[in-house]
Amino acid sequence: MKIIHTSDWHLGHTLYNYDRTEEQLAMMLQIRNIIQEEQPDALLLCGDVYHTPTPSAAIQTMFTNAIVSFHEACPTMTIVITAGNHDSGSKHEIFRTPWRVMNVYMTGTVAQEGEWAKEHLIELEGKGFIIALPYQHERNMPQGIYQALLDEAANRNQGGLPIVMMAHTTVTGADFLGHSLGNDRSVGGIDSLDLHALGEGYDYLALGHIHHAQFIHGSSHRARYSGSPMAVSFDETYSHSVSIVEIATHGELPQVRTIDIINPHPLVTLPIDGWTDWETARQMLKRFPPDIPAYIRLNVEVDDFLPSSAQYDALHIAEGKECHFCHINARRKLAAKDSNHHQMTVAEFQAEKPIDIARRYAQDEGIAFDSDMEKLFNEALSGIGE
């Protein structure tokens, strides 16, 4: 079975009041072209289709047109779309019956009791099984539903076909890079679940909610966030993609590759690495090429406060350029105690790169952080990531 795994489209999202429809259309066109090229058995969209529970009629029309174009690109493909925490689960299911004509399954809610398999277990004849579970607050999710559906799929799976499960949640141990409201216990308002709480018996767990594409540690490369195909914030400083997943038979490891989605209006932070003073950031914005469409954030470090005219000044500099100036991300210069140790707030700590924190620590302790030390540190960091 070959599937395209994607999630977290956040259609209707605006960035500092700038409309992003053009980018979202470009993203969906790229996915359509990938579908046409790959001819998958299924497309899985694992929640957060929209950015708000009440998207405009224009945004819903854009989504509908995209799904129809996906079907036309691969008429034999099954499309499964589950609701995320940004979506309205009940509205998600309004047109589920007519969608079935094009082999599209929309799942937005989970009943406390009933025939769960009828609503959430989809069989792709001769290809495999898909368990489609939308986001639902943990206290409203029926106890044992994950394993019950996996057991039912196993009972029906007489041909040794792949079993895939979809979920929109936070899994313990995930890397929440780019999520400003994220920690080990909760990301984006969803409390973490241990991986074992999602049951056993799937060949691939297609996850949504975290925007950084990644496998979950301890899943033997079976549980994965596809990540969002388009950045929602400046802190999502990584590539965005869709995942192509191929599973030969039940029990075999999935083979996963990614295809990058290119944003025609990238999110750019100046300076690209680190922070600078206001006048230097101002000059960087002046020198930014006038013909490059992008969103611009300035990382500025100040002794006390920004000049009161800084925001207006930056907007004025960007006039006539293709870029959109968005925001001055200001922080005060780090204060030092009598011992000259660096003091950092939690927000500043989360914003720093690990290598920079290591350099600060070495400086505080009087350790020479030379090229050999940096190489060893990066090797250790890479090992932890793997």
Describe the secondary structure blueprint for this structure.
Elements: E1 2-6, E2 14-15, E3 18-19, H1 21-38, E4 42-46, H2 57-73, E5 78-82, H3 89-92, H4 96-99, E6 104-107, H5 116-120, E7 121-124, E8 128-132, H6 145-156, E9 163-168, E10 170-171, E11 186-187, E12 190-193, E13 204-208, E14 214-215, E15 223-225, E16 241-246, E17 255-260, E18 267-270, H7 278-287, E19 295-302, H8 310-318, E20 324-332, H9 346-351, H10 354-365, H11 371-385
Helix pairs in contact: 1-2, 7-8
Would you summarize the structure shown here?
The protein is α/β, with parallel strands linked by helices and 386 residues long.
Assess the beta-strand content as a share of residues: 15-25%
Q: Biggest sheet, open or closed, and with what strands and sense?
A: 6 strands, mixed
Cα shape: globular
Q: Over the alpha carbons, how many angstroms does the gyration radius reach?
A: 23 Å
N→C terminal distance: 26 Å
How many strands in all? 20
Helix- and strand-based class? alpha/beta
What share of the residues lie within helices? 25-40%
Give the uncertain stretches in residue-range form.
none
Looking across the biggest beta sheet, what order are the strands in? 6-5-4-1-16-17
Averaged pLDDT: 92
Query: DSSP helix count?
Result: 11
Structure in words:
- The protein is built from eleven helices and 20 strands.
- The protein is α/β, with parallel strands linked by helices and 386 residues long.
- The strands form five sheets. Strands 6-5-4-1-16-17 form a six-stranded mixed sheet, with helices on one face. The chain has a six-stranded mixed sheet with strand order 7-8-9-13-15-14. A three-stranded mixed sheet has the order 10-12-11, with no helix packed on it.
- Helix 1 (21-38) runs parallel beside helix 2 (57-73) and helix 7 (278-287) packs parallel to helix 8.
- The longest helix is centred in the first third of the chain and has 18 residues, at 21-38.
